[in-house]
Amino acid sequence: MKNRIFIYTVLLLVFCLALGGLSASGAETKKIVVGAKDFTEQYVLGNLMTLLLQENGFQVEEKFGTAAAITRAGLISGQIDLMPDYTGTAGAVYFKYPEKIDDPVKLYEMAKKDDLEQNNMVWLGRTTFNNTYALAIKKDMIDAMGTSISSLSEYVNKDPEKVLFAVNHNFYEREKDGIFGMAEYYNMNILRKNVKAMDTGLTYDAIDRNQVNVAMVFGTDGKLRKFDLL
């Protein structure tokens, strides 16, 4: 369930950055609208992009904190010019490839080609930054649930009715690599009625308040330490 991050943008901005060498000198400064989704990693990446553009003379407007579908729609419609995104999301959600593609380079090339042909958008080069969906539990539940996906499966399957999950809307809706695709792959009997879909940041609050037993998190998120989750 790993997603590799890529920065992609409308075609006009790619040409502007490539030909201008990331510099706005010698030409009328264009305001660049940078978008970011509604979770920590996106805020960090969006701010890094803003700083890079500003240091090279561009005016920047930030549109951060919108839901994933809204951010993507803003890029397609031209309301934003640049955003960080994931090939895993492109394959599973945007283009709905019928087969799961494990080769990150192949997936990148497919998404790059399809977004250019279908939406006239260009994906910039891949970064080495990697993010991962994960399931987290409270540390006081280690004895019962264990520390692996297989031990969690055993715990859930003993009494599926009592185990509640909190996930974000994307992870709930993704067919092949979302919560239910994961459950099928690991033979985990997760009841659909026991999965609560919510905004990304709220999954941490839900498990902290004992409203759920298991929370979807991101492997890069500092909230794992803040809420003392495993």
Automatic annotation (TrEMBL):
Membrane-crossing residue ranges in chain numbering: none
GO cellular component, one term: ATP-binding cassette (ABC) transporter complex
Pfam families recorded: OpuAC
GO molecular function: transmembrane transporter activity
Domain ABC-type glycine betaine transport system substrate-binding: 30-229
InterPro entries: ABC_Gly_betaine_transp_sub-bd (IPR007210)
Protein name in UniProt: ABC-type glycine betaine transport system substrate-binding domain-containing protein
